[in-house]
Amino acid sequence: MIVLAHPLVDAAGLGVPSAVVAAAALLVVLLISSRAGARTPRLGRGVGGAGGARLVVGRAVGLGLLAMAILAGRLGPPGQLDTITTALVIGAGWPLLLLVSFVAGDVWRLLNPFDTLARGLEAVTGGSANRSTPRLGWVAAVGAVTWTWWLTVFPQALAPRSIALALGGYTIFALAGCLVTGRRTWLDRAEDMAVALGAIGRSGRHRSRAAQPRAVHATMGILAGGLLFGEVRFSRWWLHQLDQLGADPYGDAAVGIGFAVAVTLGGALALAAGAWGRRESAESAVADVHAGVVVALGLALAIERDRLWTSVQLLVIRAGSPFGGDVDLFGTASWPLHPWPFGDAARVWVQVAVVTACGAVALTRARRAARGSQAATATATGWLGVALLSIATA
Predict the structure, then answer these.
(1) pLDDT at 366
(2) 3-state SS string for 153-186
(3) Which long-range contacts (CB under 8 A, 24 or more apart) does 25-31 make?
(4) Rounded to two decimals, what is the model's pTM?
(5) pLDDT tens digits for 16-63?
């Protein structure tokens, strides 16, 4: 009789048992944050006070990239590698935007093309007053469900045609929201990208007693839960458990139920953590942790199956030929794509390192905001522990 090792204790291709890898990385996070929490300098100075010229350039870039992604996806060839759309929106653009926001501040406020278009709409229509709608923040939570479903479940998530269609539809939806409720109200409360990237950009830059809307906690928890499911669904321990139950781990039922459970638990746990932090007068510390977890999981998922590695190359290759075809402005369109040269084990170690680094920065910021917060420490330990186990058993 052959006895198969459990994936949590089997060394697989890492040379070290998966549980040991996760425990060691989590210990590094706790040690770094405990030693540096009270005096670590902030990463970046933020972009909230950007000057007029910088804002104009940023808005022009953001609007141009949105138009390019939509037009290239709809008018160019349908292959993922044939236009710039897939790499620009999902493969490299989304994870790099997470990383830059985490390090430099709320860069989305500089780039946000929906804000730029809404300002133009206001100029035409005469503007609309911002309306007080307390429950509007939950629209962003629903948007977080949709976005993580797209990233982790939707089978056509990387198809340029689908991406362009979704971007066009979302642009119309965002402009309608701005017109009905007011531009600032919609973008600050309901637009999920602005809410999530704003929370990440503010990480480490607010007071420990600052109140955080419950809907923001829920949005970040849903994002974390959905992104975590993207790692869990391909981990050996997830496949092992479903196999033990006789279920098809790749079937629509298992994937759908797993995703629904992940985002529901993610949102509920984030709300509970926010309430715990509120009782400690440390709610912003919990928000810092949620921001770091979302960034860590977003980057880890992007690295999975060489997506980020390939997409960064594609951004360069397609820079002179974003729409495909024979046009090649910079002579890069014929450059070949090079697959990840270091093997699967090295990629997993990179994911572990990225999650560890983001977790250490997030918990350090949280402890600087509210030293001794049990809510922040427990939240970071729980999310990062499961994430590291999932990555180490991929």
Answers:
(1) 92
(2) CCCCCCCHHHHHHHHHHHHHHHHHHHHHHCHHHH
(3) 25/352, 25/355, 25/356, 25/384, 25/388, 26/359, 26/381, 26/384, 26/385, 26/388, 28/356, 28/360, 29/356, 29/359, 29/360, 29/363, 29/380, 29/384, 30/363, 30/377, 30/381
(4) 0.92
(5) 888 888 999 999 999 998 876 555 445 445 565 556 788 899 999 999
Residue 213 backbone class (left: φ over 0; alpha: ψ -120 to 50; beta: rest): beta
- pLDDT, residue 252, reads 87
Cβ neighbours around 291 below 10 Å, total: 30
Find, among 83, 97, 58, the residue nearest to 315 by Cα.
83
DSSP collapsed to 3 states, the chain: CCCCCCCCCCCCCCCCCHHHHHHHHHHHHHHHHHHHCCCCCCCCCCCCCCCHHHHHHHHHHHHHHHHHHHHHHHHCCCCCCCCCHHHHHHHCHHHHHHHHHHHHCCCHHHHCHHHHHHHHHHHHHCCCCCCCCHHHHHHHHHHHHHHHHHHHCCCCCCCHHHHHHHHHHHHHHHHHHHHHHCHHHHHHHCCHHHHHHHHHHCCCCCCCCCCCCHHHHHHHHHHHHHHHHHHHCCCHHHHHHHHHHCCCCCCHHHHHHHHHHHHHHHHHHHHHHHHHHHHCCCHHHHHHHHHHHHHHHHHHHHHHHHHHHHHHHHHHHCCCCCCCCCCCCCCCCCCCCCCCCCHHHHHHHHHHHHHHHHHHHHHHHHHHHCCCCHHHHHHHHHHHHHHHHHHHCC
Here the tokens at position 27 are: 């210990």
Q: Provide the pLDDT for residue 3.
A: 38
Greater confidence (89 vs 370) lies with 89
pLDDT at 48: 53
Rounded to 10 degrees, the C-alpha dihedral 304/94/137/227 comes to 0
Question: What's the mean pLDDT in 322-336?
Answer: 89
Look-up of token digits 């729980």 = 382
